[in-house]
Each structure stands twice: as C-alpha cells, then as structure tokens.
Amino acid sequence: MEMKLTIRRVPTVVSNYQEDSAATGGCGRNCLGDCCLPVSKLPLYAFKANPQKDAPAKPLVNLLLTEWENRMARGLFRYDVTACETKVIPGNLGFVAQLNEGRHLKKRPTEFRVDRVLQPFDPAKFNFTKVGQEEVLFQFENGGSGDSYFVESALIPEDRAPNVVAINVSPIEYGHVLLIPRVLDQLPQRIDQESFLLALQMAAEAASPYFRLGYNSLGAFATINHLHFQAYYLSVPFPVEKAATQKIPLAEDTMKSGVNVSKLINYPVRGLVFEGGNTLNDLANVVSNACIWLQDNNVPYNVLISDCGKRIFLFPQCYAEKQALGEVSQELLDTQVNPAVWEISGHIVLKRRNDYEEASETSAWKLLAEVSLSEERFEEVKAYIFSAAGLVQSDEAEEEVSEGEDTTYPPVPVRPLPVTEGCLVLQ
Amino acid sequence: MATASSGEAAGPGDHQDHDRRLASSLTARYSDWVLEALDELPGSFLLTDPALAGHPIVYASRGLAALTGYARREVLGRNARVFQGAATDRAAVAGVREAVRTQRAHQVAILNYRRDGSPHWVLLHLAPVFHAHDGSLLHFLAVQVPIAAAGRGAPRRAAPAACREEAGRVEEDFPCASVTAKVFVDMDKRGLEAEEPRVVSDSDKEKAMNTANSIFSTLNRYSKLTGLVVCGKRCDSFGIPALSSSLNLSLGRIKQSFVLTDPSLPDNPIIYVSDAFESLTEVLLPKISIRKDGSSFRDLLHVSPIRDASGKVAFHIWVHLDVGTKHDFNGLTPEVWQLGAVGAVRVAVRGLSASGSLLRPSR
C-alpha cells in the first residue's frame, strides 16, 4: 500500500469559480473551456519577439494595471488589497510584510499531497478552464518581430491553445495576475521549456524591475494542478534581490550559452541565481532544464523571475515535507504562512495582526530558514541540476566552495540607505 | 557644571521606570530598533521631547561622553540647558530658545560646559523633527560639533559677566539657562581663551549637517507608524503636504489627465495636477477645491480613493474622462485608457508609502 504524505491547508481562492461545486455538463457561462472559448473573443496582447534594448514605454504594465483596475471597479476581487496594511520591516534585507486577514478562508482545510511534485491533470478538480472570461485580462501571444500591439477583441487562435493572463481574485498585491500557458491544453503544473520561455518573455515585455513572475511546483505550495505562473507589481526591492551572491565559476566550454550561475549567500533560503544568456532562449533552456530535473526527481521548488527576466532565482525546498512529518514547530505553523515563492523572496503575507505588529527581520529569517534545504542536500541537488542543465563547475571553484562553508547565514549589513528626500535639515 | 542635583530621590527601580518612559518617547513612534541604530551613529547629539514636561532629553548619543564628559544616563530626563553655563552668551541662548518656540531649525556657535566645569565651544545644530503627514512636532534634534579656536587676538566682545543667580527660573524651553553662582566659581581659572568667540568653518557645518541627516535617515528607516516620514521642515501654513520628489516623479510619468486631492484637509484641496489636466483647464494650486456640489465638474470626473501602505485613504484621484476624444490609445477605449491613471497612481502611492517616501514638506 502506498504511503502518502499530505498536509492540510486552506487553499487560496484564485478564481470566483473555484468554489462552485463541480460543474456538470453544458456550461453556458462563458468559461475558458472547450465549450465556450473556441467561439469567444478575448482581448489580445501581442508582444515583440525581439524587444529593443531601450524601449522607454511600458505598455504591458500600463495595460495590465488598467485592466486590473477595471476588474476592481466591477467588484471581481474578494477584497481590496490596497486596504491591507503593508510595511517594509526595518533591517538589512527589508522584508515586506502585509497584514491580510481576508485571504484566510473560513473553510475546512483540504488535504494536499506533498510527496509528489508531478501529478496528472485531473479535469474534475478546479482548473483554469472553469474560470469565467471576465476574469481574463487578455491573451498573451507572440506577435512576431513587429511592435507589440493590443486588440480589444480578438478570436482565439485556431491552430493552438491561447495563453491567457487572468486575475487572481485573492491578490497579494495590486495587479496580481496568473499567466496560464495554453489554457485549453490543460497542462499539469510542471515546467517545460516553452512555457518557461513565455514567462521570461512576459517579464521582458513588462520591462519593469518591479513586475516579477513566480512559480510554485506542487509540494512547494502550488494549489492548483494546472500550469500557471503568478505575477504582480510591487515598487520596492525584494529582499532576495538585495542578498549577496557568489558566482560559481564554470568550465570554459559550458559557457557557450552565456548563462552564469551564482549561489545565494547570507540569505535564509539556499538558492541559485541564473543570469545572462546570449538570448532569452538560452536562459530559458538552462533554467527549465534545471526545473525539469527537480520535478522529475520529486524535489519541490519555487522560481522567481526578476529584473525584467534577467535574473532568475531557483529555490529547491522541503517545508511541506517537514510539515507532513511533524518537524515544524507549532509556533511557525500557527502563523499559517505557507512559504511559496513570494514569501521566500521576502514578501510575507500574515494573517494575524499580532504577527504583523511583531514582524521583524529575525522572525522572517527564522521562518524562511525552515524552508531551505540543508547545505549538504543543497550541494547534492546543485550537482544534479548542473549536470541536467549542461553546466560544469570549473575545478578551482570546487576548492573555493568547499572552504569557508557555514551552515548559518547571519544577516549581512548593507550600505546605509541614501537619505530620504525631504528629510534634509537645513539649506 | 558639577553634579547638579536633579531633585530625583529615587531608588533603582524608579530610575528604570523613568528611563523606560523616556526611551518610549522614541520607541513608541519609531521601532525598538531605533535606539540601537542611533547608538551606531557617530557624533554627539541629543533628542528631546517637547511634549513631555520639562522638555527633557530622551536620547543621548554614544559620542556625548567624549565631548562633554557626561555619561548618557546622567543627562537623560534633564533639560538640555544642563550644558550651558555662566559664560554662555545670552543672546545665543535666546536665539536657540526662539528657534525652539517657533519650531525652526537653527545653528549657532555657543559656549558649553563639560561635566567637570570646563567650557568649550560647539556648533549647536538644532532641528525639529516633524511628522510629515500631519505636521506635528515629534522631537528636537541637537547636534554638537566641537569647533576650533579663532585666531589669536583680542576678543571681539567682552565675555558676559560671570554667573547670574536666578532662582530656579523654570522654563519649558530647552536652552534656558538657570544658573547659580557657586557652581561656576572656577570659571576664571579656565582663562579667556575659552571665551573667545569662535569662527565656524564650512567643514564644521557640514559635519553637523551630515550627522543630522544620518539621524533623520535612521528615524525614517525605523519608523513604526507606516507612512510616518519625518522631516526637518514643516508643511506650509495651509497645512497642505507637498509630495515627495519620488512620488512626483512617478506621477509625472502618468500621461492621463487627473488631479489628486487630500480629503484629510479642509476643502479637500488639490495637491497634484497632471500635465495633461493642466493643459485642459486653468487650475491654480493650492486654493482651488472641488466641492461635492461642483456639478459641472463632476460629470466629467471619475473619483476613486487612493490608499497608502497603511490601508488608509491618502488621496482622492479625479480622472478626467473625455469620451469624445479622438486619440488612439493602443487599442483601448478612451474610458478604459483614461482610467489607467488610477492603477498607476495606486501602485506608486502604495510602494512609496511602504518605504516611507510618500510625502515631504513644501519648498
């Protein structure tokens, strides 16, 4: 008999259609399923295949925020996220804490299986084809080499399933959306090269360092087993983006793709940072290969796409497993924080006012440290990832890496912030 | 000045309570971290709380002892006049007192006295710390920078007459000197050098300024009340807070036609006008207000509250909707495009507010 590792948690509602009892037969409500979508029209955003380096306008973000505001005016969100208190916690890394009592459902928790990163798609469970079209902001397709453009109303493509951007009705921040590649194909939550490239293209098209995309695998707190990325806009730096990194020297011949890899240091969660790449495609290849190895080998992970798609953070994690095995302290469990990609990156949504008031860099660090793989395990996983992604660490590096290993990551002081405008004292 | 008795007869327990109360003057507004952070700053400086009886010192920096000979604990809870003495120029003191009363920044070279009674010259840099949003005065900051002797030669003014006896003239203002003669009996022995007026060099001023800036920066960083921005200048007398340059910059990038008003102020005055709006109508800041019964305006404007990071309404945005417009909006209908201003302002305000850079005083 197969043993299953599960945890109980209350899933986040990302669509207004999620809580409906299983839809039976004929839809008639303009969803994204085969029943409705092929004959529907949706707005379409066609992005540039080869973006110019210095494009000043940011049409995608403007459009996204406009459409998002429109959905807000139409009352599609479960709460007003701008009414949720947010603050940057004092400290070196500047964790961002938010008090969001509304995200918490007063519902029975569901059981989630956490020991299998890859699970087959189950059409009976909630998935994004059941979402109403009003929750979709636009299709997101490659427009070829011309300029990007927007069309209010366009038929969906005949020859392939459309990629759509939909709202998250329980937003973590203003502008929180879901990128769902090839929605009609009903892909399970697993990364492949094409979908990962699409996510990078969206980050690049947005052209704003404050618009980030994230991915959670199953077992790393994804709730819906239908391939999707999340994205939102927050105009403060994320702690992980400020953390120090140490480049991992690569052997000459593996540097053809131009991708370089670093390790995060002085951050509570161990992770890799991928940058560069001669093209976006090269970067997508390397990182997706790493993700594929992880999911094929049952290692849950989270990915943060930051800096307009130029920096990608990969975090293998083990919190859910620890939780299922009863290895997490009750104190941490009581905060009910499920450390998915945003939390790991340093944006932490808290459900209890007490936790919010008391939030400190120390408490955030403590929580996130539980998520990290141990040093030993991380090095092991890293070696496999390298091999899967066609990277070879150069020999000299091995010595460097094995020296000065520390298992604790004490906070590192950062340069003092420049004086805030308006606080100069005298002329 | 030797150990002037403070009139506190307390046991150790009372002392601790007293210290805690003083410390909470800071930790209640900023976070608990602020004390440690201030401890790391160099220089000799004080923070005083004008709201507490006697306008006491609530924080003294680590550098205080090196400069003045006073241990930090010795000055906590006392008025800053403790540093003045007989030969301290009364005019200088009056200037400082006036600055405190009018809550303005002030710089003056002044003769202070160390714990052992020896006089020394400092550049005193006084600055009020305001709550940027409501303009309330939170603390005073006083930085002391030692300054060098002027060139040799006759002093330009005679030193003030020796000690006065003022029977405990109690004033709440911080620089008041109330001195009894017997304390300064040794003054004459220190020599006239101490009483020569000093020339304040640019580098002294710069040093004072830098110290003050570091302190402001620290207070802002550790601010507990979200959106609490402290600044050295109070908003102008109309009480309309001007927007920080970061916010102005973000708003300036928004191409739609809109204004922002501040509903927390009487008459909900306009505090920002986008360029596109300005080109439509003649709007004069800051006196024009949009009233609810301004019907001819209302039909054209979409209003929405904009919240800051604390979740409270900071502004109202009024977007001008011109449905008859012929412009191309990248495929969006004019109305939908124009409403894009709302989303853009929301994220700008929320982000800047979370990092404490939403408002600044005018000018």
Automatic annotation (TrEMBL), chain A:
UniProt record similarity statement: Belongs to the GDPGP1 family.
GO CC terms in record: cytoplasm
InterPro entries: GDPGP, GDPGP1_C, GDPGP1_N
Compartment(s): Cytoplasm
Domain GDPGP1-like N-terminal: 60-232
Keyword Membrane: no
Name of one Pfam family that matches: GDPGP1_C
The protein's name in its UniProt record: GDP-D-glucose phosphorylase 1
UniProtKB/TrEMBL annotation, chain B:
Record-given protein name: PAS domain-containing protein
Organism: Eleusine coracana subsp. coracana
Biological process, per Gene Ontology: response to blue light
Pfam families, alphabetized: PAS_9 (PF13426)
SMART domains: PAC
Keyword Flavoprotein attached: yes
GO molecular-function terms, A-Z: photoreceptor activity
Cellular component terms (Gene Ontology): nucleus
Keywords: Chromophore, Flavoprotein, FMN, Photoreceptor protein, Receptor, Sensory transduction
PANTHER family: PROTEIN TWIN LOV 1 (PTHR47429:SF2)
Residue ranges of domain PAS in the record: 30-79
